[in-house]
Automatic annotation (TrEMBL), chains A, B:
InterPro entries: Homeodomain-like_sf, HTH_TetR, Tet_transcr_reg_TetR-rel_C_sf. It comes from the Bacteria. Residues 2-62 form the HTH tetR-type domain. Keywords: DNA-binding, Transcription, Transcription regulation. This is TetR/AcrR family transcriptional regulator. Residues 25-44 bind DNA.
Length: 172, 172
DNA sequence: AATCACCTACCTATCAGTTGATAGCTGACA
DNA sequence: TGTCAGCTATCAACTGATAGGTAGGTGATT
């Protein structure tokens, strides 16, 4: 039952992470999955519904992955860095929410809001491990996450994933 | 002669910085400028031509602005930070090339290449003021530019431009 | 056991609107 | 007379979305 839905979400996530919200169509997703575009509409009535579902799943999976890596003994910042680097190395894929945030005014509000929630989760996840006061912790979380997002952007654009490591080498 | 061309480039830059390459059309640009879409094609035969010209002008203007601010006595990093913050404050506008880089696989190669050139210019501009060896200077330039780009992304997505200042407060 | 209503998960066919792009015309100006 | 900078009109392709059909399954009623 959910397996087709997952396949649709997988295809949509892949396409969005490559070309953004306005860079994919229902017909492309349908072709990827092996069904017709009307069937994609059956599971996700509108394009906004589909993209929002993709972003929501992305955020939830990320939270789980952070918890899992940390349970394995990695520090919080190292965990975030590793997760981003892995997805970059795996298939040159940027952070989904980074792309959605970049083209913010061109995506439905419900989608931009999911991206916003991802960043809020990320900033507070990283800020949490700072022993400083509230404002300095916030600044710390923002600084780390901003650097990671920007490093993915630069590495992708300049076509060299090792630049991600160089750009983030001093983070701790 | 060039005044209409400039108006077209202005409109295209504004639209791309809000919704990306796939988030604008010739008809929208034409409406913004007050002409017909066929007239936009007269000046820029294809969409790729137009977007590449926008990105090229953006890079050149940025280089000039950096030189000008520095002549006025500001440090290199402070200059880059100020230029990005100003464009964010002015009209919630992200870095043009940050957006084009994010949706890289969805834009024509000639456009992605202009974005790449912007980042190469930026990284070496910032790396230049480092007194360290080649690799460390590169890492320094990458780190600063990545943080600035990511800070714009976060501030825009979270709807609060002061977050840009918080995220970049420790850069020097 | 057989009929019935209902559901899920697809399908075909089609819609109006938008897209980038082209051909060919017009008027202004040198 | 050309060239420039617009224009009208049109194109095929693609877009998100909808209507309506169908095959197969579930579960209750008869």
């Amino acid at each position: 039952m959910t397996e087709r839905v997952d396949a649709i979400l997988d295809a949509a996530e892949n396409r969005i992470r490559r070309a953004g919200y306005n860079g994919f169509s229902f017909r492309e997703i349908a072709t990827d999955v092996g069904i017709k575009s009307a069937s994609v509409h059956y599971h996700f009535p509108t394009k906004a519904d589909l993209a929002a579902a993709v972003a929501k799943r992305y955020r939830e999976r990320f939270e789980e992955a952070v918890a899992k890596n940390e349970a394995a003994g990695a520090g919080r910042v190292e965990t975030w860095k590793t997760l981003f680097r892995d997805s970059l190395a795996e298939d040159n894929r940027m952070c989904l929410c980074g792309i959605l945030a970049a083209e913010k005014e061109g995506v439905p509000e419900v989608v931009a809001d999911e991206a916003r929630q991802f960043f809020e989760m990320g900033v507070s996840s990283i800020a949490e491990v700072s022993k400083d006061n509230a404002e300095n912790s916030l600044a710390y979380g923002l600084n780390i996450l901003a650097t990671l997002e920007g490093a993915m952007l630069l590495a992708q654009s300049m076509g060299d994933n090792t630049l991600f490591d160089l750009a983030t080498a001093n983070l701790k």
